[in-house]
Design a protein that fits this description.
Blueprint (H helix, E strand, L loop, with lengths): L1 H23 L4 H25 L5 H23 L1 H7 L17 H4 L2
Helix pairs in contact: 1-2, 2-3
Length: about 110
């Protein structure tokens, strides 16, 4: 039993390392963000398909819920890794994905 647990733990670690490598090997930041959140889409498709197979009316709601969760995942990663850098080069502009918030403007730029 211990060997079986070690095998599955090793397999899980190997899969996680491969996933992280797959994410970071993407060329552009938007592709890295998309790849990092791809498991959300995969899980959503599994649950939506299971709901359709069970002949329930919930597949649309499940699909919509996971789509919203995917957008939240992408915005969270963008905010954490890329927003500050983007705001430095785009002061005063609307933040992508947000309809109301703007990047801060430095004091010396407000007076010009």
């Amino acid at each position: 039993m211990k060997k079986l647990v070690e095998f599955f733990a090793g397999t899980l670690v190997a899969c996680l390392v491969l996933f992280v490598a797959w994410v970071f090997l993407a060329g552009a930041p938007d592709e890295r963000i998309d790849r990092a959140c791809r498991p959300v889409i995969w899980v959503g498709k599994v649950f939506s398909s299971a709901s359709m197979a069970a002949d329930t009316d919930y597949s649309g709601g499940i699909s919509s819920g996971f789509s919203n969760f995917n957008k939240g995942c992408q915005l969270t990663i963008w905010d954490y890794f890329y927003a500050r850098k983007w705001c430095v080069t785009h002061p005063g502009k609307l933040i992508p994905g947000d309809q109301y918030d703007r990047c801060p403007v430095a004091n010396h730029q407000e007076n010009t």
